[in-house]
Amino acid sequence: MRSKRSGSAFVLAVGTILVLSIVVAAFSVRLESHIRAESNRIGRIKAEQAVQAGIARAMATLTSANLNALDTTEEWATIGNAGAEEFQIGDASVRIQIVDATRFVDINSATEEQLVKMNLTDEQAACLLDWREDQIQPRALGAKDEFYNALETPYNAKLRRFESVNEIFLVKGFTPELVLLPPQNVTSNLLASGSAEDQPSLADLFQVDSQSPNTRADGSQRVNLNVAQNPQMVQAGIRNQAAQAIIQRRNTQGQFTSFNQVFNVAGINAQDAETLLNVATVTNETTLNGKININTASEQVLRTIPNLTEQEVAGIVQRSGQFRSLGELVSNAGLNTATLGQVADFFAIGSSSFLVYAEGRSGPTKVYWIAHIAVENGQPRITKMERPLQRNPLAKWGWDDDASTTTTLIQPAE
To answer: pLDDT means per 10 residues in the chain (414 residues)?
Structure first.
């Protein structure tokens, strides 16, 4: 009897130990999982805080930037060494780069012809225009509420400006493959040298909310050709004969809406065109939307502009970063008056809108953000924060996986 009881007790003890072992093991797994999750959460918080510090550092450099004529040798353009410099902030680090938003095509302002030159089909261009424009009726190839309301998860067309690059995926036909990969329908419209695989993706070309100050290169006010009288124009440097011709045309045909109309005024020559680009405007707006900056735009972006020849693109690229006035398109980039009339309204040399690319790290945790910055009265402010379209945007930003130099701002805790 004692032997049987001892055996039962032993079995019970072993069973209890086994159960306790399983419970302890399960608890250990859960505890390890909890510790790992908590560690990841803390790492993400530190990485996010590093990003905030990096963006604040970037914004500080923009307070001294010459917005009227961007200089790509200034601190705003060199800080972070295009992601090659890492700033150590305690137990975390951040890499940053400031990019001029007007170096891209603004899809809120791009014309249909320009969208097609970006290797969109006629249908894709129509759908994008229908999304941003407030007309109720769709284009023949476009899409409005009738299409979007019939989707499995219905929604309405925006009928106003894009607020975010991520919004592009709501537009009919704009799949991740279309936006993030090289275009599939490239024929003769190559935006970069090489084959179809070497062409920029749509995400490489476009942005939203690009703005430029409507000022002269020295920051002074431009002369509005729709209201200025002869003495004001002459004082600004416009030839008397050209000023008279402009006023006569304005009085007989109405106000100007573009430089194209101004350059078509009889008697306007190349010298007049250069002066007008430097000192004149056809609007009373202090800020211009959707201009492309000839000091920062890539060759691929310049090739999206209708009527700009390869030779003229090369002339602009050769002087990129060196334009101190818009009129240098005539004197230094070799554009004639006829071409200027077709392309001048696309261009600017200044900018008041910027993007800050930021990567924050803490241990194995990495976070990526793009801050949209507007500079008003010399003060930068964040207008929005976006996640990049890509999970890992380093290739698009042109960054290496790791920094080559480290600058310690705050020493890590002991």
So the answer is: 58 64 61 65 94 97 96 96 96 97 97 94 97 96 98 97 96 96 76 82 94 96 97 97 97 96 93 95 96 96 93 92 92 79 93 98 96 96 95 93 94 74
Q: Which of 143, 127, 289 is nearest to 208 (CA)?
A: 289
pLDDT of residue 36: 65
pLDDT at 195: 77
| pLDDT at residue 37, as a whole number | 66
Closest CA to 302 of 275, 333, 267: 333
- Distance set, CA 359 to CA 36, 89, 298, 370 (Å): 22, 13, 23, 9
The one-letter amino acid code at 125 reads: A
Residue count (the chain): 414
- Per-residue pLDDT, 337: 77
> What was the pLDDT predicted at 75?
96
Cα–Cα separations (whole angstroms), residue 353 to 47, 98, 344? 25, 10, 20
Cα separation of 188 and 303, whole Å? 12
How far is the C-alpha of 17 from the C-alpha of 346, rounded, in Å? Answer: 79
Going by C-alpha positions, the residue among 219, 323, 326, 320 that lies closest to residue 275 is 326
Query: Which residues, in sequence order, are bridge partners of residue 366?
Result: 361
Strand order in the sheet with 92-100: 379-386, 365-376, 353-362, 92-100, 85-89, 405-410
Question: How many C-beta neighbours within 10 Å does residue 246 have?
Answer: 24
Give 367's strand partners: 360
Burial of 226 (C-beta count, 10 Å sphere; 0-12/13-18/19+): middle
The tokens describing 233, both together, are: 């124009």
Among 155, 334, 346, CA closest to 260: 346
pTM, two decimals, is 0.89
Alpha-carbon distance of 36 to 34, in angstroms, equals 5
